[in-house]
Amino acid sequence: MRISEIFYSIQGEGRLIGVPSVFLRTSGCNLRCRWCDTPYTSWQPEGTSWSIDKILGEVAKYPSRHVVITGGEPLLAVEIQTLAEQLKRRGAHITIETAATIFKPLDCDLISLSPKLANSTPWKNARGKFAAMHERRRLNIPVIQKFLDAHDYQLKFVVDGRRDFAEIGVILGQLNNLDPTRILIMAQGTTSPVLNRKARWIVELCKRYGYSYTPRLHIQLFGNRRGT
Ligand code: SF4
Question: Which of 83, 88, 134, 192 would you label with 128, given CA atoms 20 to 30 Å apart?
Fold first, then answer.
């Protein structure tokens, strides 16, 4: 499995915010978000090949049972199901963070779905050469629904402008059996001043629509740095 980094930090976003967790970051992504905050897993993927045993050995070095498998897009990894199964056998609480464009049955305690809105499409990056591919793949309603039906979940949207809320409404209208408290809105941004500025109007819109706001605590604490 191609791994970009493994590190121990606190969960910075979502329902488990603040929980000390081991992060396994896979490398490789089938999308190219224009604002991707881990370009070393997508636009310029880096990383080395790790066996499942080596990953399990690394995870065991840390004192938390919470493991977050993130990316990149971890669902692309052929061994993802074996890894999750092995971690589960060792008593881990597993969160898997995915853009929800691909479905696989998975052993996990929380699936963190982050479907990408139109604000993510890289029309101007790399002369727009990935834009059509990204547009075609970024939203897959049947896949999102399958995850919602199969797991405890959170459904997280990265918002860049007020108009994004209308788009979120259209997406939610196509999904069934949603718990509104599990719909999380996060600001697009990788610095505290930008996140704080956007948070003010996002929180007001969250109150209007009944969604939950999630900060990006790791950025506020450590900045946009690897290993945090
Ligand atoms: S899905 Fe995630 S890793 Fe992939 S390009 Fe978008 S933000 Fe980056």
Answer: 192
